[in-house]
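Archive record
______________

***
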Amino acid sequence: MQGGTALQIRRANPEEYERVRDFYYLLIDAMEGAPFSPGWERDVYPSQDFLRSSLEKGELYVGELDGQIAASMVVNHAYNEGYREVRWAFNAADSELFVVHALGVHSQFSGRGIAGRMARHVIDMAAPNYV
């Protein structure tokens, strides 16, 4: 990690709803007009209901630098029906899948490998299920 403190990845608490929502608002505003924008919109995706539900289920994670949210994601076992049509290299039960949703890193923190660290965190979470 370049300079500063290390990224701290943790499960967010339901009481942090406004803080998480505001992070996504800032992220969406920062991406407006960007050439590779994911097309997210305030209160559409990720929706407030999705964020609240994910927080209450313990599925929303944040990556913090110096106490500021630099990244956020939702990790659960839910996926779109289109995934069922894919021929995967192995068969796994839904409970064995770890699906990442709404992974975002604020542009202020880009180029620091934060998205990769967030993804590595998910892999580490899944590892005990396969060892």
User: Anything to note?
Assistant: Strands lie at 8-11, 60-65, 68-76, 99-105. The domain at 8-112 is CATH 3.40.630.30 (Aminopeptidase).
